[in-house]
């Protein structure tokens, strides 16, 4: 059993893409955004009911920004202490544990506010998932800083994804994933509609669970059965096995997922085509310094040994960073 | 070698936790207890983590689950955790076995427990207590800081009374409770004085003290004519309340109101006057829930540190056996002086050393080394908390060694048999005693043996028969 000083923070990131949810309401009227929010709140309540040291945060992920549904700025209590700053006491009126009742009311209010006030700027219809994950990581980092002496905190992020992946967010996503891995933060993913390669990679790298739900109505049951057990219990329970991950990288020039491409030896960025120079740099003939080139080649081969499933095919010179370009195959 | 009788008995303070207490209750009382969402939530929080997951999974199932399916939930090498969970859930009557249609055995959650846990998590059902909206906002509202001060002040009066400070006075009820709990001994006509169990109680951390005290109170509750179920439910409800909010006393029965007055004396709630219609739970009441899981080896509970009140993390222990206690509270100084030798005293610091004599004297009073170490660990200064281990291992090891020094000798009471006339007599009696299992020690060349007290009468009868037959 975890000791009393170990806090367990669960951050739930909900994808509230209005376009997807609007279409969903027409496809399957029995599973709407409010039902999904109910399931998420059940999961959050169960998590907080487990011990006094469990903490919760809920973030909604929209087009251009992400909002904290709980805890939010209007409500200052974080550990159950009542500061008396709210005008009216949260009156629960039924048998629910008071802390959970307050949390649920706050989440519902904030969600209504977010959905009704966010405006549509620009024409991108993709959810800003990488941004929400980054916000979650910042929140976790802040909570870790605010711990008292002798306390430790274990955190994980649960992503509930609905809309399609956005290839434009690839770089930011990968940065977030590696930052989470460094901080030992698990990323779990619960996917409602279509498989997401980015989230599969995230779960694989950080050690979390990826699950595509066959029946959306049973979302609450899946959340409680699969995603509620925390880090100590997961090795003991039988949970869904890891899926085969698509590790293709997205190229920097067009953001397509590529299997064969060009890699700059200096910054290790992958490119789909040589004929589209993005950075300043002249395209000239091969450089004179062959020894320089051979050193770079061995360096790259060593580096490539760490990337999974990648093999060297052919090498060519380029002047993007005055370096060597090699062609990879995943 | 059979177990020797210890001549020197030490009374150990038994700190039960919630589950052990509940297992002792009868099944009818347990079922009545589970009728309140607060109790279900408190019991749920006490379960081992794997059992919590099991309960969560079964919370929304209306049909029994085959036991074979349950066994498939865990991996092969975690089978012992599964067995532990099954035994805990069964002993607390949280689930029943039911015969399924195929003749298999199935498990289903106790329906009362299931319904009330669902209410606690998701809503519905009756409110736990009437919210304060009917009496309006409090004109004399108290903030968290003053509540903390009040709570610590009341609790310290009790501890001061136990130590014997002259200006600490508690009610007759409370003094009687302390005597019944075995913490104090009151000879007729004299003032009560503390027992060795009382010393051990003083060294515990606040949450364990609270819980021990509450358990003793509950044990005497039935003799006072109070309803155990009602009191326990109210206690759990209190432990889940929000600090700083006031609650109304509407709808509370007579026995609950009496109970509230007792809690007021312990410092668990604050009420401006006896007839006030609202009360504020203090941090101690909320700590009660956290203190239920009494884990003596855990480091300081964050609930113990009440901001702005008497600091309960004030001890610095150095590897040269010096203790610096940054406190001016008489009680804390008296506690530290129980097992250390005081050297200097300043307005805000007390300096002492832990010596062999001081520790062994404490042990002679009935305190164990584990309790001393637990005391140091739970009151460690935040600077000490940054080190691992919190208390230097030299100190902990040395305290334990000093304790072991007293255990080099074991006393066993017995009866000596000697001056046997022949070796054959000795051997016959010795074999008989060994056969009965009461032989403690023998010395064959000197024809001397020692037999336990209980075995002595048997062996004597045998010897008399032997003598009269030869």
Automatic annotation (TrEMBL), chain A:
GO terms for biological process: nucleotide-excision repair; regulation of DNA-templated transcription. It is found in: Nucleus. GO terms for cellular component: transcription factor TFIIH core complex; transcription factor TFIIH holo complex. One of its GO terms (molecular function) is zinc ion binding. Pfam families: Tfb4. The keyword Nucleotide-binding does not apply. Keywords: DNA damage, DNA repair, Metal-binding, Nucleus, Transcription, Transcription regulation, Zinc, Zinc-finger. InterPro entries: TFIIH_Tfb4/GTF2H3, vWFA_dom_sf. Belongs to the TFB4 family. Component of the general transcription and DNA repair factor IIH (TFIIH) core complex, which is involved in general and transcription-coupled nucleotide excision repair (NER) of damaged DNA and, when complexed to CAK, in RNA transcription by RNA polymerase II. In NER, TFIIH acts by opening DNA around the lesion to allow the excision of the damaged oligonucleotide and its replacement by a new DNA fragment. In transcription, TFIIH has an essential role in transcription initiation. Part of a TFIID-containing RNA polymerase II pre-initiation complex that is composed of TBP and at least GTF2A1, GTF2A2, GTF2E1, GTF2E2, GTF2F1, GTF2H2, GTF2H3, GTF2H4, GTF2H5, GTF2B, TCEA1, ERCC2, ERCC3, TAF1, TAF2, TAF3, TAF4, TAF5, TAF6, TAF7, TAF8, TAF9, TAF10, TAF11, TAF12 and TAF13. Component of the 7-subunit TFIIH core complex composed of XPB/ERCC3, XPD/ERCC2, GTF2H1, GTF2H2, GTF2H3, GTF2H4 and GTF2H5, which is active in NER. This is General transcription factor IIH subunit 3. The lineage of its organism: Eukaryota, Metazoa, Chordata, Craniata, Vertebrata. The gene is gtf2h3.
From TrEMBL, chain B:
InterPro entries: Tfb2_C, TFIIH_p52/Tfb2. Residues 397-464 form the Transcription factor Tfb2 C-terminal domain. Its main location: nucleus. GO terms for biological process: nucleotide-excision repair; transcription by RNA polymerase II. One of its GO terms (cellular component) is transcription factor TFIIH core complex. Component of the general transcription and DNA repair factor IIH (TFIIH) core complex, which is involved in general and transcription-coupled nucleotide excision repair (NER) of damaged DNA and, when complexed to CAK, in RNA transcription by RNA polymerase II. In NER, TFIIH acts by opening DNA around the lesion to allow the excision of the damaged oligonucleotide and its replacement by a new DNA fragment. In transcription, TFIIH has an essential role in transcription initiation. Component of the 7-subunit TFIIH core complex composed of XPB/ERCC3, XPD/ERCC2, GTF2H1, GTF2H2, GTF2H3, GTF2H4 and GTF2H5, which is active in NER. The core complex associates with the 3-subunit CDK-activating kinase (CAK) module composed of CCNH/cyclin H, CDK7 and MNAT1 to form the 10-subunit holoenzyme (holo-TFIIH) active in transcription. This is General transcription factor IIH subunit 4. It comes from Gadus morhua (Atlantic cod). The lineage of its organism: Eukaryota, Metazoa, Chordata, Craniata, Vertebrata.
